[in-house]
Amino acid sequence: MDNQIEVTIKQHQRSRLFSRELAMLMYGFGDTMPPLPESVDVLEDILIDYINDVCVQAAKVSAKKGKVGVDDFKFVLRKDPKKLARVEELIARNKEIESARSLF
């Protein structure tokens, strides 16, 4: 019973990093505005778990222990073509932005 209380307390103490963005996404996909806070919290927990899992997998396949690179994330996402394409698109956009900044 005490373990369950500790988990509940820890969940409430966590800072909500993506609450505002998730609420907007939920509204964009047809939820009410504002969506229920419980729904946002559940989605945020799922999102944080997913990000954590991807990072752990990337760290496991990393050639250099202690350093995770972009190629490690690409390798982890290789079976999901949509996510892999999005990663490559973001990398290309980042290069464009860096080159534009270097001009000024």
UniProtKB/TrEMBL annotation:
InterPro entries in the record? Histone-fold (IPR009072), TFIID_TAF13 (IPR003195)
Entry keyword set:
Nucleus, Transcription, Transcription regulation
Q: Name one GO cellular component term.
A: transcription factor TFIID complex
- Any GO MF annotation of the entry: protein heterodimerization activity
Q: Which domain of life is it from?
A: Eukaryota
Q: Where in the cell is it found?
A: Nucleus
Record GO biological process: RNA polymerase II preinitiation complex assembly
User: What's the protein here called?
Assistant: Transcription initiation factor TFIID subunit 13
Its ancestry begins with: Eukaryota, Fungi, Fungi incertae sedis, Zoopagomycota, Kickxellomycotina
Q: Pfam families this protein is in?
A: TFIID-18kDa
Regions annotated as coiled coil: none
- Similarity comment: Belongs to the TAF13 family.
Looking up Gene3D superfamilies in the UniProt record yields: Histone, subunit A (1.10.20.10)
Whose protein is this, by species?
Coemansia asiatica
